[in-house]
Design goal:
single chain, 329 residues, alpha+beta, Beta Polymerase, domain 2, four-stranded mixed sheet, flat
Length: 329
């Protein structure tokens, strides 16, 4: 979501949105580029905002650095608006838990789950109804839930309502489905609001050959990450490292458990913890690596070189661990 830009609008809103995302000083030239505002226009607007106390400015040699003043009342409000997505997801979780009868699962996916939603985005939700049949109560409760989400977000709400068996059938044929991208979004970007993860509902066994294939993908992505470090493409390096680490953990889960996690990366972290010493260490490394996912893939601000190198180092450790485990099994 981009609440600051949406509510304030124009170039001023884009500049404040970019400033609210980081608690650090930024050169005016970089801020203008990130916000998509001309340098001259950005300087003029930032001077107005500085006079209001919303931003702080100071010069270091020829460079003007600016930051959002979070001690200023308006600056604090702008900063709180930038945290709106986390608040919305928390409220969605609360609303999902109040559905009756208790759902098998409610999963948020799509742009809001990825952190890239805008004013025109839909709120995409997969609702898996309970196995106990009470169709009228479920439909009434789901309708109330949809209206509540619409009021909460101001966005259109798109709810997919499946029973567990229908979901399993659709998921089992996902590779042949023209809408395969939808299932990738549900699997990779999902946030479980309540109930079971997608994997817990549909199951996803992983063979020894599958685990080896995941490891091969992990090595390929790790190679891309290393190449990107050499040429200074920090965002690409970190993003490739995240993909490499996720594939390495899929290989690890496949080798040790015969299945992989689904329904979101948080489930992978939780599943790895149950898999002995190797799994626990991989879980900690994956959790650290996933912190770079949003900055590398969705945040408009460029990655810093130390962060990119740290991400590649974590991915390298995960790939090595997965290779060692597969060699033993």
């Amino acid at each position: 979501m981009q609440p600051v830009e949406t509510l304030i609008g124009g170039a001023r809103g884009r500049l404040l949105e970019a400033l609210a995302r980081v608690d650090a000083e930024l050169p005016v030239s970089r801020l203008a580029a990130v916000a998509g505002v001309g340098r001259t226009r950005a300087s003029s607007l930032l001077e107005e905002l500085a006079q209001l106390g919303v931003v702080q400015r100071h010069r270091v040699g020829p460079t003007t650095l600016v930051r959002l003043d979070r001690e200023n009342a308006a600056g604090r409000l702008v900063a709180s608006l930038s945290g709106l997505r986390a608040y919305v997801i928390s409220e969605l979780q609360h609303a999902a838990r109040e559905l009756q009868p208790e759902p098998t699962s409610v999963i948020l996916f799509g742009s809001l789950a990825r952190g890239s939603a805008g004013a025109a985005s839909d709120v995409d939700i997969l609702a898996v109804r309970p196995t106990v049949r009470d169709s009228e109560q479920w439909q009434a409760s789901l309708g109330d839930f949809e209206r509540r989400v619409r009021r909460l977000t101001g966005n259109r709400v798109h709810v997919l309502d499946y029973d567990p068996e229908d979901l399993r059938r659709r998921y089992s044929t996902r590779d042949d489905d023209p809408g395969a991208g939808f299932w990738r979004s549900v699997s990779e970007d999902a946030i479980v609001l309540t109930g079971a993860s997608l994997l817990e509902i549909v199951g996803e066994p992983v063979s020894r050959a599958d685990a080896a294939a995941y490891l091969a993908k992990a090595n390929s992505w790790l190679g891309s990450a290393r190449e990107s470090l050499v040429v200074g493409r920090w965002d690409v390096a970190a993003g490739s490292a995240v993909t490499a680490g996720v594939n390495a953990c899929d290989a690890l889960c496949g080798a040790l458990l015969g299945e992989r996690a689904g329904g979101g990366h948080a489930e992978a972290v939780a599943l790895l913890i149950t898999l002995g010493t190797d799994g626990k260490q991989a879980s900690r490394q994956l959790a650290q690596l996933l912190r770079f996912k949003t900055p590398a893939q969705y945040d408009p601000l460029p990655m810093a070189e130390p962060d990119a190198r740290r991400a590649v180092d974590l991915a390298d450790r995960l790939v090595q661990r997965a290779a060692t485990v597969l060699a033993r099994h």
